[in-house]
């Protein structure tokens, strides 16, 4: 029986020959990802009667959402997490400064082909860049996994997005993701598994690819998958923490919905306030005043994102009256960007560099907007209030467009600088 | 809790977790009892002040999209909200509702028919919503999660499972 990726991997994990959409299976994940919410999860775990976690090696714990701590209350949360990690013997713990959970999980060789990552974070589908099944779950569900090691999952319907052709220079995976979300809507893939296929996806490097499954959370997807090719295998050589066996969908699998895109028709896109599916071509909003530009997040805070922005900023200055905040997604990205000279470029242009983590993405710290201000950001969400105050506008775009807009003080295409 | 009766608070499509429970509180408000005062803060400031136990939220499509934050459910379940009826739910939000024993019911026809502010009845056992415009049927909760619901939520369900394993 021909199966999609989701049907096949959930069958494998549940010890079944095959599964069908709608079926409920109970599975044990390979990775249980949690972050700053680890302390509240531990509280639920204790209310459940939990004492020792089911499998310490299953855990990957990160402090990234408000790191380093902006307030004493946050610092206390961090302290409690460190105590839990020590007490439970959690090996894969990544403290303040290491970076954003989804990026670091990949860098550390903990997101692996053919594995299941369940995370108490909505952008856990990110792990699909390595051919893993990544899905977000709630805190109580995570606590239950800590206690008993397993969780129920509904086998999702699958959507196949095929992208052929070639991207124009300056057009990125972010623009593709925004185009698709704009076309299909915020609930376009509700509860579904979104697979990315086609030559245009194959030609993207891993960093660019990662933006696609990361952003499928904004289309309601349960998980998103890119077939792991030789680029993935090469990346994992000497890095993978476990041996793995990739899972591929059958060529004649049954997809609930299929879409095709020609990469050559994609242009720079912008998600406008206040929903991610309110997508317009860049040209439609060019000229909009920008108070703050934010380059970073799990969506677009990797080395090639910083490189694209640095290329735009080289020899330019951030506009008077506009701020630019740069946050590398991880300490590794930071170091690589430093060695490549990008950090110097940012500082010379007048940008602010903050330490790796989520930063102002969900309004915690390191550059939240003032009332009435307009931000342009490389993040994945622009919901009202997302960055701290509901009285502000957030536009989402690719790194080069964000950097160019910082220089111009208004939304602009890099070629028009 | 078989029959729930309450006043309707009706909202639109794609109501996201950032307006249901703002992100800035996610690591500063950790006691569930403190969460209801922030419920729907950036959507409808009147809600937290005026809602009564048993009241019912009516949402459009994709209710609860965005962040996985469970507080966006707990701020409502702690306030003893009776149910949420929507045209469709975001996946994680839906799971969080069931895991917190907050009835999350999918019934597009009822959503269109029910008026903001009216008082309606939801009969979980009969699978019926009774409102001024008539009676609407909704599909029963998925069988595999009924056990969790019956236990009063995932916390109690897992506690019972752990106890069984320890014996």
Care to describe what's here?
The complex is a heterodimer of chains A (417) and B (167). Chain A has helices at residues 5-14, 38-47, 72-88, 101-107, 139-148, 173-184, 199-203, 206-215, 230-236, 282-285, 297-300, 303-313, 331-339, 342-349, 399-408; strands spanning 24-27, 31-34, 59-62, 93-94, 116-119, 133-136, 151-154, 158-164, 193-197, 223-225, 257-262, 269-271, 279-281, 292-295, 323-326, 352-353, 374-377, 393-396. Chain A is an alpha/beta fold and 417 residues long. Chain A folds into two domains: 5-240 and 254-261, Aconitase, domain 3 (2-Layer Sandwich); 270-416, Aconitase, domain 3. In chain A, strand 8 (158-164), helix 6 and strand 9 (193-197) form a beta-alpha-beta unit. The model of chain A has no long low-confidence stretch (mean pLDDT 97). Chain B has helices at 17-20, 45-50, 71-77, 91-99, 108-113, 143-150, 154-166, and strands spanning 3-10, 56-59, 83-86, 104-106, 119-123, 128-131, 134-137. With 167 residues, chain B is an alpha/beta fold. Chain B has a seven-stranded mixed β-sheet with strand order 4-3-2-1-5-6-7. The mean pLDDT of chain B is 91. In chain B, strand 2 (56-59), helix 3 and strand 3 (83-86) form a beta-alpha-beta unit. The interface between A and B is large, with 50 and 43 residues.
Short description:
Chain A has 15 helices and 18 strands. Chain A has 417 residues and is of the alpha/beta class.
SSE layout:
The complex is a heterodimer of chains A (417) and B (167).
Chain A: H1 5-14, E1 24-27, E2 31-34, H2 38-47, E3 59-62, H3 72-88, E4 93-94, H4 101-107, E5 116-119, E6 133-136, H5 139-148, E7 151-154, E8 158-164, H6 173-184, E9 193-197, H7 199-203, H8 206-215, E10 223-225, H9 230-236, E11 257-262, E12 269-271, E13 279-281, H10 282-285, E14 292-295, H11 297-300, H12 303-313, E15 323-326, H13 331-339, H14 342-349, E16 352-353, E17 374-377, E18 393-396, H15 399-408
Parallel strand pairs in A: 2-3, 2-5, 3-4, 5-6, 8-9, 8-11, 9-10, 14-15, 14-17, 15-16, 17-18
Antiparallel strand pairs in A: 1-7, 12-13
Helix pairs in contact in A: 2-5, 6-8, 12-14, 12-15
Chain B: E1 3-10, H1 17-20, H2 45-50, E2 56-59, H3 71-77, E3 83-86, H4 91-99, E4 104-106, H5 108-113, E5 119-123, E6 128-131, E7 134-137, H6 143-150, H7 154-166
Parallel strand pairs in B: 1-2, 2-3, 3-4
Antiparallel strand pairs in B: 1-5, 5-6, 6-7
